[in-house]
Amino acid sequence: MGWTAARLAAGPPGVVVLMYHRIAGDDVFPGVGAGRFRRQMLWLQRHCTLIAPEHLEGSLAGGNRRRPAVLLTFDDGYRDFHDVAFPVLKELQIPALVFLSTAFMDEGGGLWADALRFALMRTQRTHVSLPWPSLAAYPLDTAQRRRHLLGLALAHLKRQPDEERRCLLAALFQVLGFGEEGPGLGRPMMNWAEVRATLPLVRLGGHTHTHPILSRVDPARQEEEIRTCRRRIEEMCGIAPTAFAYPNGQPGDFTEETQRILRRQGFTLAFAASEGLNGAQADRLALRRFSGRADVPQLAWFRGPRHALA
């Protein structure tokens, strides 16, 4: 992999932030895979400087060009972080930043998008009539069609105000043959004991309390979600986080008002899901990230010329 290391070092200075969600995967929920994740970590350790978030500011200013700075981030707080990813990170002594949606540590359960994925992939229905007019009927006779409908449904629901999204989702669960609460997911997220077991190698960040897309709720709800998340992490782990990740994380999913609320609640860094490097001029409340689902050789291209440097 000599050419990949050379390619990585040849890029402009800045910090690569990698974004992970699930590590373990199956036929319903895609993940990076334990083997691929380990290979990535070994490659990154060999060719890069893997930084903790407290070293981000110094790395944004330049850092070591021959060993590019990389920060690992994990969204949501999935249990497979504790079970699969953390043992690798601990063995290799690689720091990471995990963003928690704290309601799931408190109460169990999982994300509505995961419940919808499970419902669509496991429903016994062979076709559905959707509860919104633009996609009134759709066949479910192949896995490919189910995945396609999942993409369409997620895109539609994520654009809706949060209360309307809840109503549409409940109706869709019923159409798919589940109750309006949707299918149970067991315990996909870490509990607080598992979160604490990853400290101090792992740093904790906020990801709201119940994981709404923040621009789809009013400012008072945004503030409550952000404040509650930070408070629960401090209460349960003794750490008041200063880093945050926006749910969904696309440019329209947060606003300037969201950023003002973050500052008011004590957050100094916030991460989006837009691709790109982070340089000295990067907006500290809209830092860019690359998906960690790439194959190992593709990691080298994260610093290539097709990506703008902020």
What does this structure look like?
This protein is of the alpha/beta class and 310 residues long. It has two domains: 2-108 and 187-303, TIM Barrel (Alpha-Beta Barrel); 112-175. Helices cover 40% and strands 13% of the residues. It contains eleven helices and ten strands. The strands form three sheets. Strands 1, 2, 3, 4, 7 and 10 form a six-stranded parallel sheet that branches. It has a two-stranded antiparallel ribbon with strand order 5-6. α2 (34-47) runs parallel beside α4, α6 (112-122) runs antiparallel to α7 and α10 packs parallel to α11 (256-264). The two termini are 28 Å apart.
Task: State the main characteristics.
alpha/beta, TIM Barrel, six-stranded parallel β-sheet, 11 helices, globular, disordered C terminus
Output the CATH class name of the largest domain: Alpha Beta
Structural class: alpha/beta
Number of helical runs?
11
Compute the CA-based radius of gyration: 20 Å
Q: Mean pLDDT, rounded to whole units?
A: 90
Overall 3D geometry?
globular
**CATH-assigned fold name of the largest domain:** TIM Barrel
Per DSSP E runs of 2 or more residues, the count of β-strands stands at: 10
Superfamily (CATH H level) name of the largest domain: Glycoside hydrolase/deacetylase
Order of helices and strands: HEHEHEHEHHEEHHHEHEHEE
Largest sheet: 6 strands, parallel
CATH architecture of the largest domain: Alpha-Beta Barrel
Q: Give the termini separation.
A: 28 Å
Q: How much strand content do the residues show?
A: 5-15%
Helix content: 25-40%
Number of discrete domains? 2
Poorly predicted ranges:
1-7, 304-310
